[in-house]
Structure formats: C-alpha cells, structure tokens
Amino acid sequence: MSTPESGPGELRLGASQVPTTTEIPRGTAPTPGVALAAARVPGGPSVPDAEPIALTALIQRYANELFTAPPASVAPGSATTSTAAPAVPVGAPVASAPLGGEASPPTSAFGFSDAIALPTAPSAPPAAAPPAAAPPTSAPTTPAAPSADASPFTSPLRFDALGDLGALPLISFPLLDDTSAPALAPPAATPAPDHALAYELVPTDRPSLGPVTGTGFDPHVLRREFPILNERVNGKRLVWLDNAATTQKPQAVIDRLKYFYEHENSNIHRAAHTLAARATDAYESARDSVRRFINAPSVKDIVFVRGTTEGINLIAQAWGRANVKAGDEIVITHLEHHANIVPWQQLCLATGAVLKVAPVDDDGQIILAAYEQLLGPKTVLVSLTQVSNALGTITPAREMIEAAHRHGAVVVLDGAQAVSHMPVDVQALDCDFFVFSGHKVFAPTGIGAVYGKRALLEAMPPWQGGGNMISDVTFERTTFHGPPMRFEAGTGNIADAVGLGAALDWLMRIGVANVGHYEHELLGYGTARLATVPGLRMIGTARDKAGVLSFTLAGQKTEQVGGMLDQEGIAVRSGHHCAQPILRRFGVEATVRASLAPYNTCDDLDALVAALHRIQVGR
Ligand code: C6P
After folding, report:
1. In 3-state terms, what secondary structure has residue 229?
2. pLDDT in tens, 179-209
3. C-alpha of residue 416 to centroid of ligand 1, in Å
C-alpha cells in the first residue's frame, strides 16, 4: 500500500480559542510483619481532629511501644518465607503485640488500620472468623482446603512500619518496596492450574495455520473456564468477538468476587476488625499482582483507578496541571482513543499548551519520521496507545518513548488494548506512566491501574481530595499520604480490585506470551478468511497488529451488519469505537470490528465469515 508522507496535524488550543469541536485535517499525517493495630489504643481516648499535634505525639508514643514490643507470634504452616519477618497466616487477622497488657484487635497483614478514633477496644481479639467455605478455585480438579481463617487468595506481603511517611506516621503504613519484601509464595490452598500442561500437545483444528501446539496452549481447554461462552443468543451458540470493548471473565475471577463478598467484604485501611484486615490484604495483594503483571519496581508505583479513562484524566489533572504551561507542546498520535485525546485537549485549553498529532500511513502505522519531527524543546509530554482499538495497530512504543525522552518529554502509554495480548514490562519500555483497564483483561469493569515512575508520582499533587488519601486534616491545612494512596481518595472499588488481581494471576499462569502467539495465528487466519467476503474492506492493515479485525462491507451500514450478526449469535462492535479521528483518516465514520481473545477459535471466525457471506448475498 502507498504511504503518503502527509504532514503532521496540529491542534492549537490556546486558552482564548475554545472550539466546540476540533477538526483534524483529513489525510494528515498516534518491621516487617508487625501488625499495626497499634493505632488502636485500648481504652484510649477518642481524639478530636482539631488536635493534630497531641494526636501525633500520642500515636508516636504508642507506635514506639509497639515496635519495641515482641513480634507477633509465628503461625505454624504460614506461607511466609522471610526469616526477618514473623510469619502471618495468609489472609488471617494478625495478632498484634500487646499494648498495656491487652491484645490489640486484628489488623491487616499490610499494616493498615486507622482504628485510632474508636473510643474503646475489645478486651480480647474478636472471635475467630466463621469457617470459610471451601473456596472455589479456577481448576475444578485442584484440591482446595484453606484453613478457616486463611483466605486462599491473599499473599503474605508486608508493609513497612513507619517508613517514609513524613508528616504524620500514625495510621497507615507505606507499601514495602518489593525488593525487600519476602518472596511471594503461591497461596497454598489454591495451586494454580497448570495451563502449560493442560494446553500441551492438543492439535489445532486448523493445522494449515501453523502450530498452535507450539505455543503450549489450547483455546478449547481455555474456553471451559468461561461459563458465559455456553450462553445461547438468538438460539445460536454465542460467538464473542467484542473483546476490545470488554473481555469475558473466567471462573477464577467470578469465584474470587464471590469469595470476597462471602468472606472478606469490608472497607479497607481503616478499621480494627477482622474483615477489614482480610479486605485490606486482598486489595493490597491485588496491587502486587498488578505490579508483577507489568513488572513495575514497586507496589508504591501502582494506583488503582476506575479504568484507562480515569487513569489518563488523573495524569492530565495531577501531573499536567502542575507541569504544563502556555506554549508547551503535547504530542499524541492519530490512532488515539478519545480517552487519550480529550483529557489533553482539556489540559491544553486550560493551560494554553498546544496539541500535536503524529500521523499514520495508509496501513494505519505511525510515520516515525513525522513523529520525530514533532518533537522538540517545547514537547513536555507524549501520550500514545500501545495498540489501536480501532485498527489493531501495534505502535513502536519503545522507539517512540526513546525519541520522546531524547527531548526530555514525559511519556504516557495507553495500554488498554495491549495488556490482554502481549507481555508488558514498564521498566523495559521505560514509559513514565502506563495505564490500563481491568475489564479488557478478564477482570471486572470499574477497575484499572496507573503505573507511574516513583519520582513523578511523588512530585504530583493529588487530583481528588477526601478520605483515605490524607495523613492529617485540620481546618487550616491537610497533609497527604505518599503514592499510591494520595491518588486514591474515598472508598475505592475494593472487590473489583481483588477481581483484577485474580484475573492477572490467572493470565500470568497461562502466559501472556502464549496468548499473544496464539492470537497472532488467529488474526492471520481471520484476515485471510475475511478477504473472501465480497465487498469487504479491511481498515487497518499494519504489519504489526493485535487482536482487531476492523472492516466495512460495501452496500451495508455497519450497525445493520452488527444487528444481523447478532441474530446469528455473533457479537461484534459496530460504530466509531470512540476513535473518530482515526476512522476519518480512512474516510469512514464507522466500521464493524471483530476483536479477539484467547478463548476465540477458528470456528468463531468461520461463523463470522459465513454470516458475512450470507449478508452479502442477501440471505
Ligand atoms: N475502548 C473499545 O470498544 P475505559 O473505557 O476507560 O475502560 O477505556 C478507554 C480506552 C482507552 N484507550 C483505548 C486504546 C481503549 O480501547 C479504550 C476503551 C473500548 O474500543 C471502549 S470505547
């Protein structure tokens, strides 16, 4: 295909120019283990907010007593491997060191408790938790025998006591730097299903496609973990090809949510009772799953948000407002989802900065030379997608980040469409921020994460104010926690964060690289089969693509095609995919988009192609 060297588009959005719409010219060329129930002072005073200094002194005194007290008892059989830290049963409430001769209430293994304000303390720890039902596991054949107290889903991580809290080290405790954390032990009660084993040696049903077996992966086995795939829609087998919009959830995630609500549900970081400790452990354990999934250096670098949209808005508001000024330049690409356009436009409008757009060629690939020409001394930020949701293009993110860094710009990587298709290593990519949504990677909706380099996060002001993110509030002033809590104001989506952790653990067990290899085969198969449909135009023909087959059908409206496919039980998305600029780059307002996940098979694509043939011949 031809590759026009069209010039870069440029949006000038000075504060005085406030367009209601933005036009981009067509063809322009995207102490370990110590449970800090210390804050709870048996019989202690309730402390009014207006006395922060007295409160600080009080807490510091009790905290000091706590940390000179003997460590909590070591639970036999604990999964904890550290010799430095007293072991705590996974997910179980932690018996804290006695204060004043009385046992403190159970506290999260992560050391969160802000029970200071409670006027009285129980004279003994609460009764043991009711016996937990045998927890569900993602592998029905796996024995599951948790102890009554131990959530099978939490990991024995620890929070540092009184680390670098700064102003008021009383209530919550900084996340351990993972390099010093005890090695993670898999939850003893739920050995991971051995996907590699399960998927070995299963012959593909399309041998001509190449060896699916070579990936050690069988989609037919994987499908059994997704109950929704047994649904019938309009009397037909459900063919779910709308994965770029949202992925389906494996049994492991469904079970994890159920377990949370049946055994752990509580608010987190802020109570002295057993369920708060369980919920806090589950939530913080999920944060560590995110860290491992994207290879971030520390859990301190992971902020939970609602999803990619909220994550990018967080960066635009918190980092952007503090660092972008009139005349600065922000570079995005023509491939971006609206979530990676609009927040930057808003920032430009507020600050007088200028938005620039890196062009793509006729295959939907970034024109690197044109991108590099956009970079200069005024470039303060580059924000790009790793995979286009509308075309499937995989951008040369590493190269683009490197180029941006040569000009001193900060780089945001939108990983929404990447995380389910390819391994992500934020340290190898060297992006400054990375954002993704859980629901696109087999986790629930309403939860996602922002990774940020530590120095950037620490220098950023909070973007929302409220509970959970403060270390002290008076009517005169407020001091904030460090990251990540500084950016998690209010009660978050606790259960779904736990579900996200379960989804990522599940995917890591399968191996994202295995998924990527398999989907690559599937994409090639689908592309070839779709080419047989009369009047079909593929939109997005990049050399490197992931997961997306976007097309138009001559003589058919995309929404009608979507409706007709639905009649056949086939779910695709038709429309502009919240990426209008890139579709207009190809002269269309909408496409039909089939998007892939590892549970899709050649049969799914055959069903799609057969239905499209029928549509085109009017049957
Ligand atoms: N794309 C799609 O059907 P949220 O909605 O916050 O989870 O994700 C926003 C987003 C950001 N970037 C990219 C590349 C995306 O694909 C999306 C979401 C969905 O393509 C819903 S519009």
Report:
1. helix
2. 333 333 333 333 333 333 232 222 334 533 4
3. 6
Task: Determine the Cα angle at 498 with ends 249 and 225, to 5°.
Answer: 25
Determine the distance separating the centroid of ligand 1 and the alpha carbon of 39, expressed in angstroms. 41
As a whole number of Å, the end-to-end CA separation of the chain is 33
Say if residues 391 and 582 touch (Cβ distance below 8 Å). yes
Query: What burial letters (b/e) apply to 562-571, b meaning 16+ CB within 10 Å?
Result: beebbebbbb
Q: Tell me whether residue 616 is exposed, middle or buried, using C-beta atoms within 10 angstroms of its C-beta: 0 to 12, 13 to 18, 19 or more.
A: middle
Tokens found for residue 557:
């409206």
Q: Compute the distance from residue 222 Cα to the ligand 1 centre, in Å.
A: 25
Q: What is the pLDDT of residues 338-369, one digit of tens each?
A: 999 999 999 999 999 999 999 999 999 999 99
The DSSP 8-state label assigned to residue 199 in this structure reads T
**Per-residue H/E/C for 568-579:** CCEECEEECCCC
Angle at 392 between CA 388 and CA 394, to 5 degrees: 70
245 Cβ inside 6 Å of ligand 1: yes
Ligand 1, residue 389: give the atom nearest the CA. Answer: 16
As to burial, measured by CB atoms within 10 angstroms (0-12 exposed, 13-18 middle, 19+ buried), residue 394 is buried
Does 307 contact ligand 1 (Cβ within 6 A)? yes
The H-assigned helical ranges of 176-307 are 195-198, 219-223, 251-259, 274-294
Which phi and psi (to 5°) does residue 214 adopt?
A: -60, -20
Q: Could you tell me which of 448, 382, 457 has the C-alpha nearest to residue 418?
A: 448
Residue type, 524: G
* 578 noted as active-site residue: yes
Is it true that the peptide bond before 140 is cis, omega within 30 degrees of 0? Answer: no
Does ligand 1 come within 6 angstroms of the Cβ of 281? no
For ligand 1, atom 5, which residue shows the shortest CA distance? Answer: 309
